[in-house]
Amino acid sequence: MGRSSDAGGPIRSQAGDLPGRTGGRAFSRNAGEICAAVSVGLLGLYLVTKGIEYSVGTFRQMGPGFYPLALGLILVAFSAGLCVEGARAEAPAEPINWRPLLFVVASVGVFALVAPRFGLIPATVALVLLSALSERSPSPGVAIGTAIGLSVAGYLIFLYFLKLPIAAFRW
Amino acid sequence: MDVLANLGMGFKVAASIDGLLFCFIGVTVGTLVGALPGLGALVTITMLLPVTFYLDPVIALIMLAGIFYGAQYGNSITSILLNIPGTPSSAVTCLDGYPMAKAGRAGQALFLTAAASFVGGSLAILLLMWFAPRLASFAMHFSSADFFSVILLALVAASTLSTGSPLKGLTMVAIGVALGLVGTDINSGVERFTFGILQFKEGLSLVAVAMGLFGIAEILTNIGNAAQGTLIQKSFTLRSMLPTRDDVRLSTMPTLRGSALGSWIGILPGAGPSIASFMAYAVEKKIAKDPSRFGKGAVEGITAPEASNNAAVQAAFIPTLGLGIPGDAVMAVLMGAMLIHGITPGPQFISSNPEMFWGLIASFWIGNVMLLIINIPLINVWTRILSIPYHILYPAMLFFIAIGVYSINNSPTDVVVAIVFGVWGYFMIRYGYSGAPLLLGMIMGPMLEEYLRRSLLLSRGSFWTFVDRPMSATFIGLTALILVWPLFRRAMGGRTLAEYFQDAVRKLLRSRAT
Fold it and tell me: Which ipTM value was assigned to this complex?
C-alpha cells in the first residue's frame, strides 16, 4: 500500500502481506477500496455536471466550467482504472480504529465549538481529555497533566508571545 | 564576483537578530521533528504557517525552510539508536546504523551522519547558488504553453514517482486540482463549488486541508500503531563520537558521491530525499569492493544516504525558487506560504526579490552550520526528548493543529474542513492513496488552469500549441514517458520503480523484527 507524504510521516510497520481473509471473495475483502474507487468516479461525475452548469465556453475562450468538465472526465476515467486495481489489490493489514476516529474528531470539533464561546484554556482542556479517551486504557493522571501542561504552553506561545486574538477565558 | 556581492546582501538579512533567531528555531524544531517518528516536516511546517503571518516574509521562509532541511539531520538519530526511521528517507540508515550502534559505535555513527548531512547540504547549496539563477533566466522566455507543460510534468512526476500506485497518485493530484477550483473564478467572477458557504468564496483554506490530511489523518493512522522502543544508548561523550581514521577514509568518497547523486535527484520534481537516500545506498553497495559488509555496520552505508537526502532536500529549492514549480508537497506548502505573504513564485522571483533569494541561501549556510553544532554536541538533549511516549505527543499535536487551523480566521468552518479531510485522509491512506500529490494539485491547479486558458487564447483554441514549441513539446514528451513507463515495465514483467522501492522498504521493516 502507499505511504503518506514522503517528506512527512513515518513508515507504518506492516504486520506482513496478508493475503486477505481466505474464504472471502476478492470483492468483499476489497469492498473498502472499491468504494474509494467508485467515490472518485462519483466526484468526477459531479464535476462534469457542474462544469456544464457553469458554462463550458469554447476551446478558444474557456468558460468557468471548462476546467471542471475536463477534470471530471479525467476522474471518471481514473475511477474505472482504480476499480480494476482495487479488485486485484490486497486488503489493508490493520482494521479500522473506530474509537480513536471518534474521539480525535470529537476532541478537535469540541475545541472549535468551545474556543469562541469559552476561551482557549477550556477548549484546550476539553481537547486533551477527549483525545485521551481514544486510547484503549486511558490514564487520567497523564491526561490531566498533559492538559495542564498544554494549557500553560498554549497560553504562553499563542496568547502572550504571539498575541493571537483569542480569549483565554470567557464566561 | 557577482555571487559574492549577492551573498553579502543575503548574509545581511540572514544574520540579523531576527534571521538568526528564527533560523535557529526552524532548524531545531526541524531536527526534533525529524527525529521523532510520528511527526514530519510537512505537518510541522503546515502547523507553523499561521504563526508566520506575523513575521517578515524572508524570516518566515528562513524558519520554515530550516524545519525542512533540519529534519533530514535529525532523522538519522532514531534510525541508529532505535532501528526506527525518523522520516522515510532515513530508512536505509537503519540498515548499517543500527548494527553500528549494537557494536557500541553509536556515537561515531551519529557523528558521521551529521557530518555527511552537512557535506550533502553544502554541496547542494553551491549547486543552488549556481544553477537557480540560470534556470530562472532561462525560464523567463517560457510562454504560457511552456509553463502549462512544465507544471503538468511536475504534477505527473510527483504523483507517479514516489507513491505506490501511479494511478492513485494521479487521482489524488486530480482531486487536489479539483479542490483548487473551490472559490471565485478570477476570469468570470462565477462562484464555483462554494455551496453558498461564505468562507469558501476565497477558496478552501490550504492550511485547513493540509492539517487535516497530514496532521489529523496521520495521528488517526498512528494511534494504535505507534512504534516505541528503548534507545540503545542515551548519553554520549564528545570523545566517544569521534570517528576513527579508517572511518573517515572510507566515508569520504561515499559522502561525495551521495551528495552529487542527491543534488541531482532533488532537482527533479517528485523525486525526493527518500529516493535519493535509497539510490545512494544501492550505488555504494554495487560499487563496493566487499558488498557483504553492508548491513553489518559499513560506514559507507550511512554516510552516502545521509549526504544524499540532505542534498536532495536542499536541491529541491532549485525548481521551487527558480521556476516556481514545487517538487513535492513540502515545497508546495512553502510556496503557499510565499503566496500568503504576497510573493509570487516563478522565474521572475529571483530577479524581483534578490534580497529574499540570497537571504534564504545565506540562511541555508547558517542553518547547516547550526545543525552540525546541534547534532553533535547536543545529542544528549535529543535522546532525552526521544523518550517522550506517544500518548503525550499526540494530544499536543492535536492541540497545535486545532489552534493553528482555528487561528487563521477565528473560524470554526476551517476546523470542520480540517476534520473532514482528516477523516477522509485516514481512509484514503488505508487504501493506498497518498496525500502529498493532492496538496500539490491544490496549489498548482489554479496556475495550471490559468496557463491553459492563456495558451488556448493565444493559439485561438488550438491544442497544437503545446507541441509546437520545443520546450513545451519536450515537457509533454517527458510527461507521456512517465505515464507510459509503468505500463511498459509491467507488461514486460518488471516492477515500477515505486513498487521496487516500496518492496525494499517493506523488506527492511520485516527484517528489523529479527
Answer: 0.75
